[in-house]
Amino acid sequence: VKENVPAYLDPNLGIEELMSGVSFASAGSGFDPLTPTIGNVIDIPTQLEYFREYKRKLEGKMGKEQMEKHIEDAVFCVSAGTNDFIINYFTIPIRRKTFTIEAYQQFVIYQLRQFIQGLWQEGAKKITVAGLPPIGCLPIAITLFSDDALTNRRCIDRFSTVAINYNFYLQKELGLMQMSLAHLGSKIFYLDVYNPVYEIIHGHLKFGFEEVSSGCCGSGYLEASILCNPESYVCPNTSAYVFFDSVHPSEKTYFLLFKSLRPTIDSILGSF
Predict the structure, then answer these.
(1) Which residue from 86, 100, 94, 179 is spatially nearest to 138, judged by alpha carbons?
(2) Domain range for residue 90?
(3) 55 is a domain residue
(4) Distance in angstroms (rounded) separating the CA atoms of residues 20 and 11
(5) The whole model's pTM is what?
(6) How many domains in the chain?
(7) Is position 246 within any domain?
(8) Is 207 domain-assigned?
(9) Collapsed DSSP state (helix, strand, coil) of residue 194
């Protein structure tokens, strides 16, 4: 496993880099087709099409049989959903006019299921799917939806409850998908990110964190994605912050999350 997974769309990547793993993700995207249009980013179907293109490149290098074996041995990491709720459902009124929150959770999971099925059809055998974090504790959620976002920044429990319920439905759906495709040799793994991140936030002092409700980049309240760039202000000690920007954890938080998920990761890697 290499230290960094480069973007597939990096024009400077050679075939050896492609063979050892790439990322098809697009920051700001989501399972709901509406979500990527908000930030004008790459939607999930297009990411899947890029994967098909990637397979053709590998086939040109190693032949069809070796390419298919390469894909079967690979681990696919799927992580999305936060933007669907925070950037889309709770911020833009379009989906709220059509869906209750319960119906929207099912709608997002349906879109996820379609994507996972697409990966299976393209030969993926080992797929990890991350659940939602406690989205009510994200700095951007506190800023946008708190009654007093400046002087009393704390987690919004009703949003985090949405994440808990979504994760419950997601695990149930993944279990059904696993049963229906086990005979094909496919394995799907749920990654619980909610509980480790919740523990870090609410027990931050024992992990050495000082700031939990704002990010290290910019004001820490709203900046994310392109608003956090080489020209942005960055706090002098990133390891004191649970979040790097208003949405994403800091490197230290990601490392703690990795340690929590290590048994699952070892199980996945041991299934080769």
Answers:
(1) 86
(2) 15-192+262-269
(3) yes
(4) 16
(5) 0.93
(6) 1
(7) no
(8) no
(9) helix
